[in-house]
Amino acid sequence: MASKRTAKQRVASDDDTKEEPAKRPKLRNGASDPLREPHRFAAEAEEHGIVLRKFYPPEMSNARARAYNDNKIPRPIEQLEAAVEETASMRKDTKVKEAVIHWFKTDLRTTDNRALWEASQKAREAGVPLICIYIVSLEDFEAHFTSPPRVDFVMRTLHELKRDLAALDIPLHVETVAKRTKIQERIVEFMDEWGASHLYANIEYEVDELRRDARIVRVCADRGLAMVLFHDTCVVPPGALHTGAGKQYAVYSPWYRAWVAHVHANQELLSLLEPPAKNPAAAREKVAALFDCEIPEVPENKRLSEEDAARFRATWPAGEREAMARLEKFCDEKIGAYGKKRNFPGDAATSSISVHLAAGTLSARTAVRTARDRNKTKKLDAGVEGIQAWISEVAWRDFYKHVLVHWPYICMNKPFKPEYANIEWSYNSAHFEAWCAGRTGYPIVDAAMRQMRSIGYMHNRCRMIAASFLSKDLLLDWRLGERFFMERLIDGDFASNNGGWGFSASVGVDPQPYFRIFNPLLQSEKFDPRGEYIRKWVPELRGVEGKAVHDPYNRGAEEKARKEGYPRPIVDHRESRERALRAYKAGIGRDKP
What we know:
CATH class of the largest domain: Alpha Beta
Shape: globular
CATH superfamily of the largest domain: HUPs
CATH topology of the largest domain: Rossmann fold
Number of helices: 27
Strand content: 5-15%
Distance between the termini: 26 Å
Number of domains: 2
């Protein structure tokens, strides 16, 4: 996974998640270091909320992004690997004391949870209690634009998880930490409070989280404690797949073929783990105080109204039992036709488990294994077409995490290819507000946006249509849309959301800017042919009959649309397409390496 070059052989790595001083460091000749200069459009982007200066430095230069690409700056995963390697002997020699702790993150389940299972085995062998902890990090919710629906879902899931663990005499302690820089300190304090020598956790692959865990590994080691980390989020761990030239894949299709071949050659990757063993009989009394701890309320700035909370509870029940029930129902009833129906938002043909994969109430392993076991073959790319198609879609989540790990600057407001940062975007507030509200005059776009605002979810085909419209038709900065989605989606996952926006805005892997400009009218007619999806989410158009629902102002339904208050199209697609092509061509042509 890591480059063969050591960190000492590269440019010294600073923490890109920390604020930088106002003055840039100078070279010996007095010039600014090009790696430390912000991007040319950084000030305008920051003004419109692209970079949260409370937590992060200005948008990095293209030169700095390329330095990551060229292995001149160690990637966060390499920093974590270095910390793990350098503390290996110490951790191996650490004796189990009075307890073993599992730290839950985005793995909120008891079944098929690698770190939890390993922690349970360690505790069982030593005859000590297993204790679990979850940290509610207020600043991480803020910095990562975590949506209120997702925070609410996580907090509801914690109640379910606490009950499930209590049935095994395992306590789950949940507490709030206001400052994220204090998390490592609080984790170590908690270990000291309960006499724990070992901390188990699964790896999260975002930049902040990798750097945080690297620090905690070292802090623990300095105190004679062992932090043990596992790959669990992906079916195939990041860094395991390489091209014939030994490089990381940047295009999905060849990556997926390698992913399938790797799983076929390593069948244990789809082996599922049992829940943790029950704690020793005396453990409950020993850690009784932890069972009495209440789960905190949802943070005030992420709290839903009573009406919204009730709607989300009804639409998205929490917990791993609900996750498994949804998966089983989908595999029993819909997966066979998935390949043919998945792109039609009005057909309800998808699994609706993305929220569970994002929160970790269901593992990707379990999802793929369950689907595969419904097939006529053990091969992931053979047998029932619908099963093949669905497994391929689940694999996209692995792919985007692999991309994130190897090209970490995409976590830092940069496009996959740095030169695409040179596109000059619009920040037209009226256009952005119309898009956010679902009042663009393009029914399929408006239906998609209103669906998300109502239930915190949007069909994947519609995510692509809405994202393409924002970035291509409106030429708005794609990062505005990426942030808005994260602030609204209940299944918001950074890697998948960023990857989806990169695809639709043509700034991600395999960008194809001159071919991938969706025509919203054609997309609407093709994927919502009867207009059922539009009529469900755009009530102003429910009385519009036939194909006029796709374009009421140009297909004879102008009077009805105007009477019901539905807006005219805010831009002309043909003109917008030409403007986008000019902007992409001009931007990509700047500062080529």
